[in-house]
Specification:
homodimer, DNA-binding, Rossmann fold, six-stranded parallel sheet, 343 residues, 434 Repressor (Amino-terminal Domain)
Chain lengths: 343, 343
DNA sequence: TTTGCATGCGCAGTCGGTTGCACAGGCTCA
DNA sequence: TGAGCCTGTGCAACCGACTGCGCATGCAAA
């Protein structure tokens, strides 16, 4: 087969006109006569002509490639998110250059640099949990590459961001637990340097206060998200003089490690102590002890919004707009109550 | 900041040489004098010059973009696979254009066409379970776009493929069950049109025969991979006069649906009936009833091999090699026995 | 008849590299 | 001393599209 892809030149040759005429005819330039325009369009259709996007991007000094860096794609939260990103990217003829940091800041730096070398037009990133400084990401500013932070956003306000308002969600969560009659509500939070943890903690404190309960910091533990660290946190809570009767965990993965450990300690999960969590992953439905409630954070919608935001930023870059206006999009989470009976 | 990226032209201007000299100096062309070569390389380093890959690819009529189409990225098997693909792609400066078929052949066609329009240099695809004809994929041949089928490979031999030998794995699985003392071994297979199902079934039949057992097709059911269909299959097996005491399921997702249903029917999972499966997904460790054994199919390694294969094919394309030689890579699976006590 | 303007189209440069070919200068060897 | 060769460098075309500018032609108004 091996049919040569038709170019604008080929059309010009066949119609005995110049390439510029063909180019203008195809883009409805007013100075091209109607007859010529139609002849060109007709032949273009017959030949199945499709403009070479690479050539156009090259001329425009664009790649139409957007970098996406996530910690782990195998986590359902992130794979849902990338699905949303992908959908919008395909619609707008953008290509995704995808990379994982595996929650390691050094690997993250490598990937960021690889993407810079590939001259991505923009970057969507959910930083690794070990990323405390953002220099390597902010350096992209020097190359005029806009960045959107996603889900895990930096504490600083000087960044474009899409995130879920877990502060509000956590207040709602605590309120729900209170209404169910629980009073000793513990919290296993994530690494305390990251914004996701800060928001949860603030929501927790606010939620507890609104119910006129006393905030007891003994009930708040942290995990670095590894299985061992999570189990340590559970152990400490169980060892309290007055152990909690409800535990909120950082996310469903932490939840799974936590209840697995609690189960081993002969705690009747969701009876002796009830567990609630964040993320609302479908997979938890299959687990031995799903969370009684989980906060849906709409990762797909977050991905869509992040992609739309980066597209907007990349377009504004051309327009040479004002300095230092940062975009921010917030998604409101929903507390999903599981319909199941604990064993 | 907004530092202009240095070009070859800029270097030429500063050193008062021509761009061709700079280009050749940087690529160690033998006709360039040592002194000139060093001056050029020196300045290139100082300016942090990095060649514009887009320009080079454009000249070479390549995009360095590889399309990857998978059914669902949220399935751990596929997200592991894409990690392997990504790793090799980053190393070789390839970009991934990623798309999901959501196991729907119509969506798959759309994505394939979008990728063709974007002029991907090659395609890695794991076809949807509703893909029975491959015309839309084979059409890429007309555009000289090589295709590698991955995991779910077509029955026809006329295709490049990377897959796991589940035929052998299934024989091993049946043998293991036999050695554990099980004699009525049932099988819940996937859609019977796809190669993955055919290989499993053949392996099952061969495995049963090798143990001098009689193949009883009453013990073989199919599921279209939906929860309902899987539950129907389990129900039929449970309703047999002589129900099975071991059930092999198509993969870990089918397994989860199957044991969830069996549990509801008051079957003591992995006591009354033991369950074994394919994929060995980490997530099953958290579920109420993990498979007693699962066949590890090494999706990451499969992804790596697929990417390496497509790179090889894309390079051969230039070399105008012989017609119709198809590459094939097989991975041997491993039966992983779970270390846990059923409840 | 000349001027002026609208219409229709082509030339050539541009983006950032690569590459075939030409050419100048110096050297060696018959 | 001239033929032939090697070395070092530049010119210009090329990839596929876009685009500023200029040049015809035709027609209407002066």
């Amino acid at each position: 087969m091996n049919q040569k892809l038709p170019t604008i030149k080929e059309i010009a040759r066949r119609l005995n006109v110049s390439v510029s005429t063909v180019s203008r005819a195809l883009s409805d330039h007013p100075r091209i006569g109607a007859a010529t325009r139609e002849r060109v369009k007709q032949l273009a259709k017959e030949l199945n002509y499709e403009p070479n996007a690479q050539a156009i991007f090259f001329k425009q000094k664009k790649t139409h490639v957007v970098g996406v860096i996530l910690p782990y794609i195998r986590e359902e939260f992130f794979s849902e998110a990338i699905s949303g990103i992908e959908m919008v990217a395909l619609e707008h003829e953008y290509t995704i250059l995808f990379g994982q940091s595996y929650d390691d800041v050094e690997k993250e730096k490598e990937v960021v640099n690889a993407m810079r070398r590939q001259r991505v037009d923009g970057l969507i990133i959910s930083p690794s949990k070990t990323t405390l400084r953002y220099d390597h990401i902010e350096a992209l500013d020097n190359y005029d590459i806009p960045v959107v932070y996603f889900d895990r956003v930096p504490l600083s306000e000087k960044a474009n961001r899409v995130y879920c308002n877990v502060y509000q969600g956590t207040i709602e969560m605590v309120g729900w637990l209170f209404n169910q009659g629980y009073r000793r509500i513990a919290f296993i939070n994530g690494p305390d340097k990251i914004a996701a943890s800060r928001d949860r903690l603030n929501g927790y404190i606010e939620g507890i206060s609104r119910q006129k309960l006393k905030v007891d910091m003994q009930l708040v533990e942290n995990t670095d998200l590894t299985k061992e660290s999570t189990q340590d946190a559970v152990a400490k809570l169980l060892a309290l003089k007055q152990p909690p009767n409800a535990i909120i965990t950082f996310n469903d993965y932490v939840h799974m490690d936590a209840v697995q450990y609690a189960d081993k300690q002969h705690i009747k999960v969701n009876r002796d102590i009830i567990f609630v969590s964040y993320a609302n992953l479908p997979i938890t439905a299959y687990t031995a002890n799903p969370p009684l409630a989980s906060l849906e954070q709409y990762p797909y919608a977050q991905g869509e919004k992040a992609m739309k935001m980066i597209i907007r930023l990349m377009n504004e870059k051309n327009a040479e707009t004002q300095e230092a206006v940062f975009l921010s999009e917030e998604i409101l989470p929903t507390l999903v109550i599981n319909q199941y009976q604990p064993r």
